[in-house]
């Protein structure tokens, strides 16, 4: 087969290339470019070919096949000429003697800047160290913010790498696939690059869970044969009905991807046989009016399932996606998922931010999508500059990348998209930082509500601000958006230390009074004892931590009350009347909390529950923050010196998949005079590691530490974590 799209750089004559040659594949992909741009791409191809001439991929193929494939994926998005050239050259600076200055001299500053951004991204080495991964997130954001094309090309690069993973070793396959599903796929989704997002999600599912992918793929193939006639009947009926109503439409039927079906099975705890809607239909019409007309026609043809209609045309998703979604009862009770959209909406749904290059249009949707994306990147940059460290930034970024969205309205009708679980304060900061910093009253649907109220889709929200209002550190206990958390912390950090000390005193004094302790009774010797216990130099550090929400006022008040009580005239040896000693074998009246599983040696606090009696929590238990301060319900408790029983504690142990490892772990636990009460394993699905959840019995923290120390000596043990939240599965 001949392909005349490339021109000889010297003569300008058409060059005949075999159809399976990389040049031919590239030339077929870039026919949308101008003639001059095609010639530039041709020069870049030859330059990349020469740079990589002695290199091969793990598969044994010439290395040039990789940059050509990346360029073809980018060309499918109709990216501009410089982007295609950068895709061809994205590895030359990193992997060959070529320099950035040389690339600039041959292809211009714009291409050199894109190649430089891609080279920096390629230097990111994601690993299991959380700090390093968090710092890499920062670098990636900077690359995205400088030119969004850098991230689009990088996503094309990652897509081809995922398509050719089978030539790597199993451990590396798992690592790259997990990195992709955690980082790159969500970014593709957020940028509206639906094709790439679906490809990455499905490829990740295939490599992380190969057995599940294989099983679901076979089940889909089997179901396809069983339902072929039903699907054809639906297509004929829908087409006839729309034609009768004079609606011009293109009707497409498609199978859901294995990754999508698996996600639904996991979310709803269903087996494949219970997933009946593995087919979806897309109806593409001429304009928005026809979208709603077609919706009415379909609802008259098949009965809609209540609660399964979503209007993303009136309220688009954060990534610009627009469509009508409805689910209908089809023939024989088969549920039908239907999407109705215009051609432009369909193009935007497939290409996202790349639609700027793919579809030369002045339509508002493209402009708005670009603006929304720029706002998102700007917001992340603000969060990054306000975050104290990489881990804090990572915490904020993950909320932005993995949101279940809610849509709310301002008083003027402007739509704001927030992550599910957002509060009125999150909304206030979404409007503007100054609005968040000065909010003190909120109205939702014309009713006054607390600022901590969770907002829901459709809510009309009005924030009332005041000149004397300022952020409250307690807001950090309920806000969830990265911007709100970072701005509240930034405000607190910028406040005068004296103000924070005063605020900390005020918050602490309320908790002290709940424990029947007058603030004036806390003397210097009491503070000195607390500072010694906390390994701090002055009490202002404690008060500032309380003001910033880093320490729980209940905990500090409890410890101060214990110190004051211990130094009373009664003497430290004679226990204060309100102190209860805990052995752990008291019976139903005293209960060790399941959320934190306290064991002897853990600092503890008692809380009186009217139904369960006295509940013992550790000082660091997150559940304590949720319990209202009530002086009648808090009890000072401590452990008996020698408890007469064993205590249950949860351990998560990550091990490499090798024969006999479970027996080794069980042997060590037995040798340490501990019992295994329960254990479960998390299915590895052919991976290199398995997570084993143990519920074991120990005498104390020291006993537990000895057990963990000996378990770490087992070669196959990768990580051991004491699990303090939730229940063992």
TrEMBL record:
<dbReference type="InterPro" id="IPR007685">
    <property type="entry name" value="RelA_SpoT"/>
</dbReference>
<dbReference type="InterPro" id="IPR002912">
    <property type="entry name" value="ACT_dom"/>
</dbReference>
<dbReference type="GO" id="GO:0008893">
    <property type="term" value="F:guanosine-3',5'-bis(diphosphate) 3'-diphosphatase activity"/>
</dbReference>
<feature type="domain" description="TGS">
    <location>
        <begin position="404"/>
        <end position="465"/>
    </location>
</feature>
<dbReference type="InterPro" id="IPR003607">
    <property type="entry name" value="HD/PDEase_dom"/>
</dbReference>
<dbReference type="InterPro" id="IPR045865">
    <property type="entry name" value="ACT-like_dom_sf"/>
</dbReference>
<comment type="function">
    <text>In eubacteria ppGpp (guanosine 3'-diphosphate 5'-diphosphate) is a mediator of the stringent response that coordinates a variety of cellular activities in response to changes in nutritional abundance.</text>
</comment>
<dbReference type="InterPro" id="IPR045600">
    <property type="entry name" value="RelA/SpoT_AH_RIS"/>
</dbReference>
<keyword id="KW-0808">Transferase</keyword>
<dbReference type="Pfam" id="PF13328">
    <property type="entry name" value="HD_4"/>
</dbReference>
<feature type="domain" description="ACT">
    <location>
        <begin position="650"/>
        <end position="725"/>
    </location>
</feature>
<dbReference type="GO" id="GO:0008728">
    <property type="term" value="F:GTP diphosphokinase activity"/>
</dbReference>
<dbReference type="InterPro" id="IPR043519">
    <property type="entry name" value="NT_sf"/>
</dbReference>
<dbReference type="InterPro" id="IPR033655">
    <property type="entry name" value="TGS_RelA/SpoT"/>
</dbReference>
<keyword id="KW-0378">Hydrolase</keyword>
<dbReference type="Pfam" id="PF04607">
    <property type="entry name" value="RelA_SpoT"/>
</dbReference>
<dbReference type="Pfam" id="PF13291">
    <property type="entry name" value="ACT_4"/>
</dbReference>
<feature type="domain" description="HD">
    <location>
        <begin position="63"/>
        <end position="162"/>
    </location>
</feature>
<dbReference type="Pfam" id="PF02824">
    <property type="entry name" value="TGS"/>
</dbReference>
<dbReference type="InterPro" id="IPR006674">
    <property type="entry name" value="HD_domain"/>
</dbReference>
<dbReference type="GO" id="GO:0015969">
    <property type="term" value="P:guanosine tetraphosphate metabolic process"/>
</dbReference>
<dbReference type="InterPro" id="IPR004811">
    <property type="entry name" value="RelA/Spo_fam"/>
</dbReference>
<dbReference type="GO" id="GO:0042594">
    <property type="term" value="P:response to starvation"/>
</dbReference>
<dbReference type="InterPro" id="IPR004095">
    <property type="entry name" value="TGS"/>
</dbReference>
<dbReference type="GO" id="GO:0005886">
    <property type="term" value="C:plasma membrane"/>
</dbReference>
<dbReference type="InterPro" id="IPR012676">
    <property type="entry name" value="TGS-like"/>
</dbReference>
<dbReference type="InterPro" id="IPR012675">
    <property type="entry name" value="Beta-grasp_dom_sf"/>
</dbReference>
<dbReference type="Pfam" id="PF19296">
    <property type="entry name" value="RelA_AH_RIS"/>
</dbReference>
<protein>
    <submittedName>
        <fullName>Guanosine-3,5-bis(Diphosphate) 3-pyrophosphohydrolase</fullName>
        <ecNumber>2.7.6.5</ecNumber>
    </submittedName>
</protein>
<dbReference type="GO" id="GO:0015949">
    <property type="term" value="P:nucleobase-containing small molecule interconversion"/>
</dbReference>
<comment type="similarity">
    <text>Belongs to the relA/spoT family.</text>
</comment>
């Amino acid at each position: 087969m001949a392909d005349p799209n490339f021109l000889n750089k010297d003569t300008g004559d058409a060059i005949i290339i075999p159809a399976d040659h990389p040049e031919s594949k590239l030339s077929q992909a870039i026919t949308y470019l101008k003639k001059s741009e095609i010639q530039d791409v041709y020069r870049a191809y030859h330059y990349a070919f020469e740079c990589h001439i002695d290199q091969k991929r793990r598969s044994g193929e010439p290395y040039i096949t990789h940059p050509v494939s990346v360029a073809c994926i980018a060309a499918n998005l109709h990216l501009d000429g410089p982007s295609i050239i950068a895709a061809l050259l994205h590895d030359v600076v990193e992997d060959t003697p070529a320099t950035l200055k040389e690339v600039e001299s041959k292809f211009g500053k714009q291409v050199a800047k894109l190649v430089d951004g891609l080279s920096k991204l390629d230097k990111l080495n994601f690993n299991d160290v959380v700090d390093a991964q968090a710092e890499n997130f920062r670098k990636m954001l900077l690359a995205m913010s400088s030119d969004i094309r850098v991230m689009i090309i990088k996503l094309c690069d990652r897509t081809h790498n995922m398509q050719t993973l089978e030539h790597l070793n199993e451990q590396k396959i798992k690592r790259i696939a997990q990195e992709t599903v955690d980082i790159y796929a969500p970014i593709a989704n957020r940028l509206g690059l639906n094709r790439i997002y679906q490809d990455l999600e499905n490829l990740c599912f295939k490599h992380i869970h190969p057995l599940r992918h294989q099983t679901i793929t076979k089940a889909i193939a089997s179901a396809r044969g069983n339902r072929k006639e039903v699907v054809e009947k639906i297509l004929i009926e829908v087409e006839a009905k729309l034609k009768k109503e004079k609606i011009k439409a293109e009707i497409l039927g498609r199978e859901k991807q294995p990754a999508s079906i698996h996600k639904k099975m996991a979310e709803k705890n269903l087996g494949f046989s219970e997933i009946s809607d593995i087919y979806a239909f897309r109806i593409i019409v001429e304009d928005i009016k026809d979208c709603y007309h077609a919706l009415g026609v379909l609802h008259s043809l098949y009965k809609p399932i209540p609660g399964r209609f979503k209007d993303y045309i009136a309220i688009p998703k954060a990534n610009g996606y627009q469509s009508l979604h409805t689910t209908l009862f089809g023939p024989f009770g088969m549920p039908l998922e239907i999407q109705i959209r215009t051609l432009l909406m369909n193009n935007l749904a497939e290409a996202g931010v790349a639609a700027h290059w793919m579809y030369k249009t002045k339509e508002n949707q493209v402009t708005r999508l670009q603006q929304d994306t720029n706002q998102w990147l700007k917001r992340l940059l603000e969060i990054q500059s306000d975050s104290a460290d990489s881990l804090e930034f990572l915490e904020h970024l993950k909320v932005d990348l993995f949101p279940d969205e809610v849509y709310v309205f301002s008083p003027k009708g402007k739509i704001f998209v927030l992550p599910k679980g957002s509060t009125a304060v999150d909304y206030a900061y979404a409007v503007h930082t100054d609005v968040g910093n000065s909010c003190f009253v909120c109205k939702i649907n014309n009713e006054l509500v607390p600022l901590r109220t969770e907002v829901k889709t459709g809510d009309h929200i009005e924030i009332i601000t005041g000149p004397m209002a300022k952020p409250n550190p307690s807001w950090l206990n309920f806000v969830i958006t990265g911007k709100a958390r970072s701005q509240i912390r930034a405000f607190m950090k910028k406040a005068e230390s004296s103000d924070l000390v005063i605020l900390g005193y005020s918050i602490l004094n309320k908790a002290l009074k709940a424990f029947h302790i007058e603030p004036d009774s806390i003397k210097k010797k009491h503070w000195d004892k607390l500072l010694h216990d906390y390994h701090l130099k002055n009490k202002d550090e404690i008060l500032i931590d309380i003001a910033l929400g880093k320490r729980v006022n209940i905990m500090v008040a409890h410890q101060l009350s214990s110190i004051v009580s211990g130094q009373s005239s009664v003497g430290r040896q004679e226990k204060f009347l309100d102190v209860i000693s805990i052995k752990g074998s008291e019976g139903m009246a005293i209960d060790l909390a399941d959320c934190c599983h306290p064991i002897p040696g853990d600092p503890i606090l008692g809380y009186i529950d009217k139904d369960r009696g006295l509940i013992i929590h550790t000082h660091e238990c997150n559940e304590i923050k949720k319990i209202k301060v009530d002086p009648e319900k808090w009890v000072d408790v401590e452990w008996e010196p020698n408890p007469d029983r064993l205590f249950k504690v949860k351990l998560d142990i990550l091990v490499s998949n090798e024969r006999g490892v479970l027996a080794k772990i069980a042997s060590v636990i037995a040798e340490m005079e501990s019992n295994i009460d329960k254990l479960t394993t998390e299915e590895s699905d052919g991976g290199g590691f398995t997570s084993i959840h143990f519920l074991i019995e120990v005498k104390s923290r020291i006993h537990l530490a000895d057990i963990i120390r000996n378990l770490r000596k087992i070669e196959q043990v990768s990580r051991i974590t004491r699990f303090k939240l939730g229940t063992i599965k």
